[in-house]
Amino acid sequence: MKILVLGGAGYIGSHICKALSQQSHHSVVVDNLSTGHREAVRWSRFIEADILDRDSLIRILQDEGPFDLIMHFCAKSLVGESMQNPALYYRNNVVGTLNLLDAMVATGHDKLVFSSTAAVFGMPEKELIDEQHSRLPINPYGQSKKMIEDVLGDYHDAYGVKSVALRYFNACGADPDGEIGERHEPETHLIPNILKSAIAGKTAELKVFGDKYPTPDGTCIRDYIHVNDLASAHILAGEYLQTHAGASAFNLGNGNGFSVLQVIEAAGNVIGRDIAYTVEAPRAGDPPILVSDARQAGEILGWQPVYTDIESIIATAWHWHQNETF
Ligand code: UFG
């Protein structure tokens, strides 16, 4: 397949580009490098452009296309930041994706894999969240992604755009070869923060945001899914779209929840020493528990995560953080 990867210089997009090249697919990356890294684009042609510029998108789709598939990773994706600056989230995630969809329609492109998120669900109503769970986001980030999920249904019915929205639970880990990994500025995610604090040594301050949640140890529970398992799901979703219409959505997670304290303990086992932390106030917009039921992605796309053990996931991230190349 020939694939346009929007946001391919970012954490998840770059891992997908590597997986695409390993399966002999051809990719072109578009990224504005606002959070992505030019050094992470190693398996694709690179074009610097912004999804807020619809004319550029139309030009790229015309000049570089036609593409068999578009994958869209350009988004603001931090829950806390979205509470403080919702305008940024609605502009980038909603307006930007509308630009892309309109550019696709204008140039005759009709297949999209869209990065969605577990944040569309809001407070869990049952232990494991499947695709039928109600979507009542509790932060603007989740709301912006839910809005686009709804738009995708309408664009399918009216303009024939076929799509798969993949709702990631907590993406983590790194390329096991150590060529690329997770690098955000500033870093807000739990696993990189734990590992960076371990590298920085005793003086580093790892913060645990809240220990009075209604969970067994009082800290938030999440479902951690390796970035390469997300990559394989995107490729399967792209293949599915070659023969299936509709605007579908699938949850992607391991189906196992780990509390913040359990992740810190698992990281300590990987590194071989205890990791110090302090307990701080809870972070606005954090639901207490988010764990997936991802069976539908297995049944319909044929997806199976390979990294099912939290310590082996953390080990790939540890390998990256010790030798970061960008
Ligand atoms: N946490 C800490 N200390 C840190 C960082 C995080 O205690 O230094 C806690 C958070 O409060 C949360 C958990 O660790 O309880 C996981 O936090 P992350 O920031 O790693 O991930 P989030 O759950 O906030 O968000 C991620 C993605 C979102 C997605 C969400 C779905 O970044 O895009 O998962 O649950 F929406």
Q: Could you walk me through the main structural features you see in this protein, from its secondary elements to its overall organization?
A:
The chain has 326 residues and is of the alpha/beta class. The protein folds into 2 domains: 2-172 and 223-252, NAD(P)-binding Rossmann-like Domain (Rossmann fold), CATH 3.40.50.720; 190-222 and 255-291 and 307-322, UDP-galactose 4-epimerase, domain 1 (Alpha-Beta Complex), CATH 3.90.25.10. It is built from 10 helices and 14 strands. The chain has helices at residues 11-22, 54-64, 79-84, 86-107, 140-159, 190-200, 227-241, 260-271, 295-301, 310-322, and strands at 2-6, 26-31, 45-48, 69-72, 111-117, 162-168, 170-172, 206-209, 221-222, 224-226, 247-252, 258-259, 277-280, 289-290. The strands form 4 sheets. A 7-stranded parallel beta sheet has the order 3-2-1-4-5-6-11, sandwiched between helices. A 3-stranded mixed beta sheet has the order 12-9-14. Strands 7-10 form a two-stranded parallel ribbon. Helix 6 crosses helix 10 (310-322). The protein is globular, with a radius of gyration of 19 Å. The mean pLDDT is 96. It binds uridine-5'-diphosphate-4-deoxy-4-fluoro-alpha-D-galactose. Uridine-5'-diphosphate-4-deoxy-4-fluoro-alpha-D-galactose (UFG) binds next to helix 6 and strand 8.
